[in-house]
Amino acid sequence: MKNKAKITAAVAFLLAVCFVLCACEAKEEYVEIKNQTGISCSWWGNDVRHLYTIEGIGRFMDKNPDIRVSYRYGVWDGYERRNKVFMYSNTESDVMQINFAWLKQYSPDGNGYYDLSKLSDIIDLSNFTEDDLGYGTVNGKLNALPIALNTSTVFYNKDIFDSYGLELPKTWDDLYAAAEVMSKDDVYVLGMAKKHVFLLLNAYLEQTRGKAFFKEDGTINVSADDIEYMLEFYKELIDKKVMMHIDDFSNGDFINRKVAGSICWVSDADKYCQPLSEEGANVVVGDYPASDNAKRGGRYIKPATMYAISDITEHPDEAARLLNYLLNDPEMAVLQGTEKGVPVSKSAIKALQENGQTDNFGYRSNEKMLEDRDEMELMQPELENDNIITAFKTNADDYLYGKAEAEACAKAIYDEIKEMTGK
To answer: Strands, DSSP E only, in 35-173?
Structure first.
C-alpha cells in the first residue's frame, strides 16, 4: 500500500467536495454485462487523444469480452489537481496515464504504484530496453512504463536561414550572428514558451559553469550569483533579438515566420512544424545550442507520459491486459500514431513503420533525440515544475522590464526556489 498522507478533517472535507466536483467533470461510459470484471482507466489530452483512446478501449473490450472498462479523461488544465485528489482519496483508476514527475511525488519508496514486474507474464516487457524500464523503476520496483520519450528540441525554418546565406546555428555564437542579420528585418532567431526558455538558460549555465541547477534530491544546487548570471544572459538574448520575449511569443509566430526557429517538446513537433511545412517551408530538426568546451551537456530526456497501475487495484491481471494493449498492441499503436510522441514499445514502432506512419516531424525529431540520448541526463522533475518556472519568469520579468536590478531579482528567485525545494 502506498504511504497516504494523513489528512485533517477540514482538509479531508475540502478534498471530498473537490472530488465530487471532479467526478462530475469526468467522462465515463460503460455497459455492465453479467460475468464481466470491471476495471477503470484514466488519461488527459486533447479531443483527438480522447477519440482514439476511447476507440482503442472499445476494441480491447471486443477482444476481451470478460472485461468491462470504464474511463474518465480531461484536458491537462486542472488534471494534475484532480489526480492528487484521486490518489489521496484512494479513488484512482486501475490503469492510469501518469506524468513522470508523479513517480517522485506519489511513490518515493516505490510503493505508490503496482510493481509491474509482477505482471510480466501478461505485460510484454521485452518491448522495452533496460534504460526504458529504468525510467519507471523506483527502489527496485517497476512502477510505470514510458509511452514515449521527450526532450526539448530545436526546429528551424531553413528557408529563412538560406535567404540570408546563413548556416543553421550550432553554438550560442551562431545564434548571435544570425540575430545580427535577421533583426534588421524584425525577424527573431528563436521563440519558445517559458518552460523551454528556462531549460535553455539552464543548459547555458551548465555548459559554461559546469553546475546542475538541482541536486539529485531535488534541492537547489546553484547560488544567487549563478542565477544572476542566467538573468544577464537572458536579457542579452532578448536585447540582441536572438529570442522573442515569452509574453510576445505564440506558436503562430513560427508559422508566420516572425521567428526563424522554435524550441518545443518532441511530442509537440507536428503541432509546431506541420502547418509551416504544409505551406511549403523546409522545416528541419536543428542542433541544440552548445558551448565550445562545454563543462556539462545541459540537456535532459524524460518519458513524455507513462502508464501505471494502481497499487490498490482489485484486478491486477485484467488491468495488466489493458495496459499491455495500450502500450504494445499493433492495433492500438496504429490508432494512436505519434500523437503522444513516438512510442517506446518495439512492437508499436514496428506497427507504425509497417503502416507508413513515420513520415512526420515527431518521428524525425525522435530519431534525433535517440541519436543524442547518451549525451543527455534524466530529467529532474524540478526542472519542469511549473511553480518553479513561474517564480523564475515573474522575477526575471522585473529585471527585463527595468523594474529591479539583476542582483535583487536573482536573490528573490533563489529564495523562492529554495523554499519550494527545501534546505
So the answer is: 37-44, 67-74, 95-98, 137-138, 141-142, 144-150, 152-157
Integer Cα distance of 338 and 58 in angstroms: 20
**How confident is the model over 221-233, as a mean pLDDT?**
98
Cα–Cα distance between 419 and 423 in angstroms, integer? Answer: 7
Sheet with 283-285: list strands edge to edge.
188-192, 259-265, 152-157, 283-285
Q: For the chain, what is the radius of gyration of the CA atoms?
A: 23
Q: For position 53, what pLDDT does the model report? A: 98
Q: How far apart are the first and last CA of the chain?
A: 29
**Angle, CA 29 vertex, CA 27 and CA 31 arms, to 5°:** 165
User: Are 148 and 156 spatial neighbours (Cβ–Cβ below 8 Å)?
Assistant: no
Say how far apart CA 155 and CA 153 lie, in whole Å. 7
pLDDT tens by residue, 144-203? 999 999 999 999 999 999 999 999 999 999 999 999 999 999 999 999 999 999 999 999
Measured in degrees and rounded to the nearest 5, phi and psi for residue 200 equal -65, -45
Task: Provide long-range contacts, Cβ within 8 A and 24+ apart, for 79-88.
Answer: 79/44, 81/18, 82/18, 82/22, 82/25, 85/15, 85/18, 85/19, 85/22, 86/19, 86/22, 86/42, 87/2, 87/112, 88/4, 88/5, 88/7, 88/15
Q: What is the pTM of this model?
A: 0.86
Contact between residue 158 and residue 168 where contact means Cβ atoms under 8 Å apart: yes
For residues 54 and 42, give the distance between their C-alpha atoms in angstroms, rounded to a whole number: 11
* Burial label, 300 (beta-carbon count in 10 A; 0-12, 13-18, 19+): buried
Identify the residue with better confidence: 35 or 419: 419
Bridge partners of residue 74, in order along the sequence: 44
8-state DSSP, 35: T
- Residues 91/99, Cβ–Cβ less than 8 Å: no
